[in-house]
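Box 3.1 A note on notation
Throughout this textbook, protein chains are presented in two layers. The first layer is the amino acid sequence; the second is a token string describing backbone geometry. Keep the layers aligned when reading.
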Amino acid sequence: MTPVENRPVPIVLVVALAATLVVQAQQGAPVPIPRGPNVLVGRVVDVGGDTPVGGAIVTIVGFFDETGKPSPSLPEFQGRTLAEGRNVMTTGDGYFVFRDLPAGRFSLTVRALGYVNSDYPMKAIEIADGAKPPTATLRLRRHAAIGGRVVDERGEPVVGMRVEALTRAVSSSGVTWSPSAVGMTDDRGVYRIAQLAPGDYMVGVLSTTTTLPATVAGAMDPSPDNRDAYSAMSSTLTQAGLFRTWGCPTCWGSSSDGYRIGDFVLQRLGPTLPLGSDGRPLTFSNALYPGTSNPAEGTVITLGSGETRTGLDIPVRFVSGVSISGVVTGPEGPAQHHVVRLTPPGVNLNAFDPPGVATAVTDARGAFRIFAVTPGEYVLSSALVRMASETTGEGRSLSAKQQIAVGDSDITGLTLLLQPGVKMSGRVEFTNLSGNRPTGRHLVTPQPIRADTWRTIQAVVQPDGTFRTGGDPPGRYILNVTSPPGWFWQTITLNGRPVLDDIVELGASELTGLVLTFGQKTNGVSGTVTDASGAPDADAFVIVFPADSAVWRESIFSITRRYRSANSTSAGTFELTTFAPGEYFVAAVSARVARSWPDAKFLERLIPGATRVTLGPEDSKSIALKTLAVAGR
């Protein structure tokens, strides 16, 4: 089944996507962009050689209230109404024109067939009455492609094999991969994966299997006479955290799919493989180009705009796999219909439906069995997360994890003992509060800092300002918090001390003493960007990242309050808001190389020319930047 990323998105969705990217929560119904005397002229070009892109759809959006008054600054966007967008199509020479525009701030997005969607970051436009009409150049990157053959140890083609294009991340803990797109080999063993965004990839054939109890596989028969059983089991498996093939509800397979081995059924993504001469299912190790199972040894393929790389042949060796079996048990005894995962090194389990993972479901006795496993080091894990009340945030979390070394023999008699998660608790405070506390549902969400199978329970802040999470396994977590309308998250402390990078560490006992402070003002950094000649740079990309943190050097970029980026406006200005208090580097680069971030090595190269600023909870700093000359894509 084709991944979501490869499906073309209809043009009619442009405005909705643009709105989502500018601001997450809007109030009120959209209003038309008011009429005005101004004109915006622009051009869409290919990033590779500045050749024109004809037939592209350009969308302009802006923020105005019901009276037609524009929002003057980004912090004031909150609670404003996003105006309905206008669309135009570029000419054969790539030009477009928007007429009858009022003064204000706008954003542009563009889409074109054969090119990567340009929804984010948007191009910001400033329009003033009586001033010279602004111009805008929008650059698109062509889709790229990779291809090759999959062959066995004799050099024969492997037909119907699933080949993954993987994005690669390097950190202090090693190399991890995440799924990006997929292709299938034809009768010649040839694969081609198209519609890829330019960037760095690995490509490989990954062994992804599922072992279901025969009773579960039987219930997954989607025929009309089995509708009730199918619906009930589908719901049970989804609640247990089992996803397959990008959310396809019928892709777990029924008892007629795969091999029946005793009381279990083995299913796999890709071709159906026969049993070996010893009666064990044939399988293969994860194979990354040019022929390794170690992510650190996989070749990185760098694709430029419109580039196609071929000849990326992947050898696969088929062997008889071993099996791993055991039971999952919790405080109440055997864990029925529970998900167990066997994960090799390198898989990013925060990705949806990660390839290269062996998944099993326990039977009524809590027993599981995983077939077709090749020798190596693995992590065997299981987790249960159940939300009991969306109002209070109460829930239940159990988890278990252990390292497994697999050799040439079956492993039996394993026990995964589910343990309750560790809770964290605290309170929310509001500065300069007059009157009652803000109402509305806001959440505190712990996010694992490293790839994991864990699905956390969000803590709901109670009317008295207290919160308590449902419990998570020991480890480091990033706290994400949703703010009440009209308020901004400013600080986080633990027992009176600032929490750096919004990261907390759970140990064996409950973490108490967290205090989250909200205010009605936020901080930010704004200013101007000029090019080498000293002229305003309307084609710059501004990046703000922590100066006093080692986290980004570990390639951790999910801390949204510590990283901000945006295109400069048509007037060569920028404005970025709502940071965690701390010290930051601010740098501007050409929008042509903006896709090189986020990347630790890229940020290191920006530091010598960056401007350092310190931001308190409500500080606003204005600085002048010069666009740095940094080589990149």
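Residues 1-27, 73-81, 245-250 have pLDDT under 50 and may be disordered. The CA atoms of residues 245 and 581 lie 41 Å apart.
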